[in-house]
């Protein structure tokens, strides 16, 4: 039962982590470009 619940939640967690990773990459990219402009 418990393992089944975890397997169900994994896709949602993976998607959340992927979105967070993309946001962090965008933020890092924005910081790098702003530093280059300075």
Automatic annotation (TrEMBL):
InterPro entries noted in UniProt: Cys_resp_CS_actino (IPR049979)
Protein known as: Leader peptide
Species: Streptomyces lateritius
